[in-house]
Amino acid sequence: MLRLTQAVERLGTESAFQVLARAQALAAQGQDIINLGIGQPDFRTPDHIVEAGIKALRDGHHGYTPANGLPVLREAVAADLEKRHGAAVDPDCVVVVPGGKPTMFFAVLMFGEPGAEIMYPNPGFPIYESVIKYSGATPVPIALEEEKGFAFDADTVLGQITDKTRLIIINSPANPTGGVTPKAEIDKLVAGLPDHVAILSDEIYSEMLYGGREHVSLLQYPEIRDRLILLDGWSKTYAMTGWRMGYAVWPEALVETVQRLCINDHSCVNASAQYAGLAALQGPKEPVLEMVAEFDTRRKFIVDALNDLPGMRCADAAGAFYAFPNIEGTGLSAAEAQDLFLTKAGVATIAGTSFGAWGEGFVRLSYANSLENIERAIDRIRGVL
Ligand SMILES: Cc1ncc(COP(=O)(O)O)c(C=O)c1O
Questions:
Q1: Domains in the chain and their CATH numbers?
Q2: Is 311 exposed, middle or buried (0-12, 13-18, 19+ CB in 10 A)?
Q3: pLDDT of 67-77, one tens digit each?
């Protein structure tokens, strides 16, 4: 009989992919399913980006690139970050990887081992807890509360740090809640962060903020640059989830280690995708702005509509493209609500518990779907409630 490692047995998953498979199976049986489960923009990658990828293939970019990414792309990432966040970035500290996820995995592999503690947001992106457990480190949840707009509270985070804490993961704007942490809390966290703790700031939704809010990047704090891993990428901003393009800015002292991880894991990112990513950064910004404006329209609709449903209340979703309503008033658990909405209303949503224990009493609805479909989905949910 085959015996798997304990580490692999501890690895979790992202249930959005399972819900997607279930929704697709129901659709294949002829059911009309509206998918508000999946976390990816429902827009095509802008044409000029697609063309750049095709051109790169035609021009013969078929081989390996440097493990950390094409120099011209790393320079463009540094220039883009400087423009967006007003913070200078050394292109040699930028490491391009296939999507947002590899940076999380690599950061946790660097700091996680039995005896170490890693803090992560809960409810939060499920891969954080999964890979922390895989590493053997103890996952220490940072509880995010509805009353605080799902922003973290710096005093609570700092109070949970011990001499075993090696890494803190934060994510703003956040998946699954849409929460955005105010600058005052980030200032306080940075000021109190002990020297022995690294911080992974997952800013993959940095360009998706609403209501005139401005993104606060951890890059804007020079005092923690020697401990900061800044994660961002192309997946959400440029509707490029399937291209597998992401990057991180690493502390100079960790660049060699992360490059070794890249070489062991994937050698380099697909060359033509890197040229597409370059076109995304250097090309017109209008397609991104139009997409974000469309998300904002849907966001306003869905938050109001959810607040109007019996037994539900929904906090203002300030960023990303998710609404995270409290469903306690319906008398359903998160898993029951997910199941009922899918099987009886034909609407795919994700139980809050898929994002950690603190997600009980909530479901996630992605508004990366047309306004028309969102309206139909709300009507159907109202029907089953
Ligand atoms: C908070 C967060 N970080 C990272 C990712 C991963 O992005 P990618 O598809 O580029 O790996 C996601 C995707 O849903 C996310 O929600």
A1: 6-44+286-384 (3.90.1150.10), 48-282 (3.40.640.10)
A2: middle
A3: 999 999 999 99
